[in-house]
Amino acid sequence: SEAMKINQDTVLRGKKVALVPYTAAHVPRYHEWMQSEELQRLTASEPLSLEQEYEMQRSWRDDADKCTFIVLDAGRWPGQAEENSMVGDVNLFLTNTEDRTLGEIEIMIAEPSYRGRGFGKEATLLMMAYGVRNLGITKFEAKIGQENEASICMFKKLHFKKVAVNSVFQEVTLRLDVSDQERRWLLEQTSHAEEKSYAELRQPAGLLDT
Fold this sequence. Notes:
Keywords: Acyltransferase, Transferase. By secondary structure, the protein is an alpha+beta fold. About 30% of the residues lie in helices and about 25% in strands.
């Protein structure tokens, strides 16, 4: 099941964000973010130890049903160290074994100073276009906590429609079916993006200190 290693050398570069594969080098910063109670609540996740977070990163990298990118500030990277340029992450899950064309998308802008500035929107669009082009996705779902107005609002701007409310988990499910028209719109919205090789853009470790 090599499916999700598909992005291990992929950088998706837009105007504001660069999406890079989630590697062990990103774990300490990611772990730091997830100590935040607010982020735990918004992502419905439990805090993990640093060791568990490394374990999670390894399992995600090898999981054929998950595609994960770390969101970097394209204004800072390449140039600055990746851990100092990290603003969040974006995930695509193939949760339905019967239907491999359905992708569940998740976006987290963990750095508060980057919220509400279009970083999440561009990262989500880049991930959606990647899913449509490279993974054969034709339908997207997003499950968002009911109180997370900003995120619900953003997905609605990206043409998602509310299809369900789960009062037990207090979450809303939004959905987008990628018709030909939606596909054209999505590819137009991301026409500025470039796909590059991560190996070529990454700086060798020795150069980061200079």
